[in-house]
Design brief:
single chain, 784 residues, six-stranded mixed sheet, 26 helices, 18% strand
Length: 784
Amino acid sequence: MSDDLSGFSMMDLFRMEAEERLAVLSQGLVALEGTGATAEVIEPLMRAAHSLKGAARIVGLGTAVQVAHAMEDCLVAAQKGQIKLEPAHIDALLVGVDLLVQVSKISEGEQESWQSSHGDKVEKLVADLASIQAGQALGATPAPTPSPAITIPVPESRVVPQAQPQVQPLPELSRAIAAQASPPPKASSPGPGPAAAEPADRVVRVTAESLTRLMGLAGESLVQTRRFRPFVESLLLLKSRQSGLLETLQRLEDRLSSAGKALPAAERELLSTVRGQASRCLEGLGETLETLEEFARGSEDLSGRLHHEVLASRMRPLADGIRGFPRLVRDVSRQLGKQVKFEVVGETTGVDRDILDGLDAPLNHLIRNALDHGLEMPEERRAAGKNPAGTIRLEARHCAGMLQIVLGDDGRGIDLDRLRVKVVEKGLTTAPVVSRLSEAELLDFLFLPGFSTKEKVTEISGRGVGLDVVQSMVQAVRGSVQVSSQFGKGTRFILQLPLTVSVIRALLAEIAGEPFAFPLNRIDRILMLDRQDIRDLEGKPHMLLDDQPVGLVEAAQILELPAAPREDSRLPVVVASDRSHRFGVVVDRFLGERDLRVAPLDPRLGKVPNLNSSSVLENGWPVLIIDVENLIRSIDNLLSGRQIKKLSAEAAVHEEARGPKRVLVVDDSITVRELERQLLENRGYTVDVAVDGVDGWNAVRSGRYDLVVSDVDMPRMNGIQLVAHIKEDARLKAIPVIIVSYKDREEDRIRGLDVGANFYLTKSSFHDQTFLDTVVDLIGEAGS
């Protein structure tokens, strides 16, 4: 610990103490059921309870003192072999942990009222713990209710939030708390006798914002130092030219000598002077170049080490973010009557603190889904020839410059036939359409907001608010998520996340004479494709990759840039994919890999199609970073003949006079988009599609539409926000809007109509004439 703790109040110090001690208690108590309550395993738990009791007494938290003292007595009795800790006893001790968590979070002004209102609960718990200590029969102690709200808070490993200056505490009290605040030994590391205390790191008070800025500056320094390299290369070129000049002078002198002409003394002296000056210039240039090269290497090495060190300061071991999960698995599995083992591989894997904080909710949802949806009851597992205890396995590793998180279970897996039935039951598509969907396209429905395969809603799951949270978090950090399942064997979710969000590793490619960057984590592969290997399928170019046809498209065409003429027989191709689509993007040439400092685009530009950020190359040239996910959607629109066309005002007038009415469909579900498009096109309307609210807003601003049909729940911009933008624009507010949602939520309907939507329909309207009748009522028939 830092010697200077005077800036913290006593409650601040107590909370710091409580976070670490309660994490040890929670993990250790859950581990007791699996490892057995030996004296060595109980030792760190007893000391944690004892330390909490002393710290609570110092700050005057009588309730915490009572609970911690009772827990300590139980643990001491168990350590001495006087009692044997049963599952019901551990339940009671975990209830004590939950109470201490609540006490530690109470503000100083509310402590007295909280203690008085929870007095009965505290007395009952203390009485139960006293019964356990005395070896008496324990009454039915309710198992703690699993809830994210009681997840044990994880202490920062190096960074402590800044506190407001307080009155300096008495030195002896500050030392007492400070002595207790060093990291305790882990409960999972038994050894003979008391475990030796781990050496404590010094703690400095740094705000998260300051650390983020420092990370950005370190990343910028790493990129900027590489600008020396082009300068060194230009000096090498100058050195080469200087050498050529000397050689030319020497050949001139040799030629004059061989011609038998004697040069006058003045000219001979002048030629010698020129050669000498050129030689000295070359020698000086060589020395300067050597010095500059050494400086460039040193600067790159120093910047690289600085970036690595700052990155390491932002990294926390995965274990810091998952300490509450063993407790979650235990509580939920007991509530469901299931037997579950929770395994973690790669606890020490470093994770950026921002990404680790964001992982809590997604992993929480995935674990709850695995417990409720995936793992079978013990008798069902026995009947299937499985171990009655199911396994949930969480793995973390660094792979190809990315963080890979894998959460898998050995449960029943996903029944694709049942999933197809659910999709049709929820009105998301028709039976003929769903029967043609591939496995990847079908599994995409799991990530829709509100989608659940559960027949009954419980407090564990069934509300359909899980996997869309996972997808939103992953997309927010420019990552990807994949799901694979084998019916009867289990399910795996694979999250591919960047190691840091400030610097990315990217492939540079030239497109229409300009450099563009593809983030490496979003590229499947790159290749040089022979023209003779290109095939035409349904009139569109494809190549064969892994025995599967992959659509090809020119990058310049997608980015609306002038295409460069091609003479080479081999084409450079970048292969990228999402969960449902895989495409090959043809570029002009590859420029190599770079580490790029990510800079956001000016917000006044809005969402620029197919791009998400920018950077600067080492030669000072700007480079735009491709939004691969958006690019894949644009390619899908283009190859499917649904590319949104930008029309001039004059062209729009002519089209309005001669063509059918145009409808824009905005929905992030490919299946729902296709269904709406087919319904409208079969009625004669011209239909364009957009894949989310931002894509829809860009489309409606650049095209001419008679009607907009929008979903509600979409990434980046939801339907309510899209309608508000349309109705606030003087040029667009006359366009009628229909909101179509799979949820009939009254609050959404009211919000949608309040911001200006003309109708709010549910997706069940696809099965009758309601949807099409509404369209006709608003804009008339397609050709009218």
